[in-house]
User: What shape does this take?
Amino acid sequence: MSGDLGGAGLSGLAVNAELAWVLVGLGLAVVMVQRRTLAIGLVTAQALVLVGLALGHARGPEEYVAAGALALRAVGLATVFLLLIARTRDPRPSSAGMAPLRRGGLAVALALALTWLVPTIGLASRDAERAVLGLAAFGLLTAATRPATLFQVLGVVLVENGLALAALELPGTSWLIELGVAFDLILIALVAGVFHERIFAEFGAGDTAALRSLRDGP
Amino acid sequence: MIDRVYLAEASIVVPALIACLIWCLPRGWVERAALAGGVVTGGLALVVAGVALADPGHPQVGGWIALDAAAGLLIAVIAVVGLVSVLVSPAYLAANTSTLVGEPRRRSTYYVVFFAFWSSLLAVPLAGNLGAAWLLIEATTAASALLVGFSGRARALEAGWKYLILTSLGLGVALLGIVLLAAGVPGGGLGALSWRALPSYASGAPSGLIAYLLLLAGLAAKIGWAPVHNWLPDAHSEAPAPVSAMLSAALLPAVLLVAWRCSQGMAPVIGASAAQGVLIGFGLASVAVAVPFLSRPMAWKRLLAYSSLEHMGVIALGIGFGTPLAMAGVAVHIVAHAIAKSLGFVMVTPLLAHEPLAARQAVAGIGRTRPALGAGIGVCLGTLSGLPPSPLFVSELLIIAGGFQAGRPWVAAVATLLLALAFLGLIRALIDTIAGTAPWREATRLPGLRGASALAAVSVVSLLTIAGGSAWLPASALVQAFLKGVS
Assistant: This one.
């Protein structure tokens, strides 16, 4: 595969370039779509691609544990998010904050800036490095520009999906990071779910545009 | 003799078990079990801290547990702040009935989440490697976010949500830095992320610097360093007062310790000057951002929150200077700040009963209308402002002197100016809050005032003792151990 770099003497497993760009494409779609269910589907598809990659790379029990953790995370998060949507049906679509094309343009610009600013980071393939930085950029932008509470959590998930991809290329440490990320994301999603439901009950919408009372001014 | 590592592990496991126990108990037993559990957890953690601090020259560093002098100091702070917070929680829960969960499980949910938070927080300074530290910090986020929004009020939900999302994103950025570090340390596995392995990072200084910057930028979001501090004033002002004390006095410095360890581990790779320069940058920015807010009339808890921003900045400066004088200042600052901030947040319950407007705006003349309440607030503000003989005056002096000792006179000069401005702002708040004009108020029984007054008395003795004893610190084995770190 083109762009293989190796990493600090480790025998990193280079992620297939096409799959890396599929992950990026799914991430960009999350930035641009309007419907929450569609965004959840895209993030889950992304997580399942990561599961496939993890299983493809697995050589020993630890790697299979990591793949299992990723699979559990993908299914667990999708279940939590879909349950939340079922329990908190918005009477009107939450405000998008910014036009989809503008969001997409900004996301691509941020991703390009990140890949330009951050040189080689030591993963096994340059494509994977770019995909990781791209997903981090898309996640940050989603959380920053989407007022809907669920989209903000999906922004966090996007960032961590990128990190899971990076961890796949780190033999030895990978399973620990995968387990940690899986545990962390499910915990955060559950707490975010509690907040989402209460915000919905309090304001009639899962929309952070309503959360504007805490300001100190310049 | 019990192994130090077992003791350290017990100090993490016991509060987690107490959380489970409280969940299973009938309602009538919850508060008693929580108070007893608080005493047990606090006592055990203090033993661990005592063991670490008694022998600072011989840290115990393994793959999972690192028990050194710095961890001992932080464990002592978390133990005392946690214990105080548990002891004053019944008064908070009695005075505030609104809640995120249904009334039948209100108290048990509060204590279960509190002990889970305390357990994960105690584990942060003890984490033997960066990966575990990151995971534990994220665990503190999940637990403490629930506590921040515990009242279920709109403003608390906003604060809790902001805290959850901003710190999770920040920790995501930090995790990217960890992944980069793991890629560059030979060997792989858990050992690649241990504190002692960080100096063997082999992918070169430029990528090491990027990993370090990502790591610190992510941790900064959790520590509340400017410019990524936006959640801090909201979370500290909207959380239940005992939880605010934990967040401000214990959580922020505990996460700061992780940043400190990263700085020590990466200094041989990227250069001590670069590693310390980043900390100094965050420190100066935090103090500079805090100053204008400290100079304006502000609700009590919000004022304390901005004071946290200032003091985390001061500690960052001390660690950044990294000289014996500065490190002595850091040690004094962490402890004295924790005492003053705990006292300040403990005063909240009686203050709000006396003057409900204090929740939303600055109040005046508390010393005239309720002298006992005013005395506690006065001790807190006097200490936080650095008014002599406050130990924070001594620590700031040590840190500034450490800046000159480190050959950074311009940074020390700018820091002096900013600290002087912060001092003036807090002194004005002190005078207004204690001696300003106040409407007459009927003398009613204030919930939590007796405990708060007792804590104020203990705090005064402790603070004066620390101020008096800080003179010997720069040449002590403790400071030498701080400088050495876990390497």
User: Anything to note?
Assistant: Chain B touches chain A through 55 residues (CB under 8 Å). DSSP finds 19 helices and two strands in chain B. The radius of gyration of chain B is 21 Å.
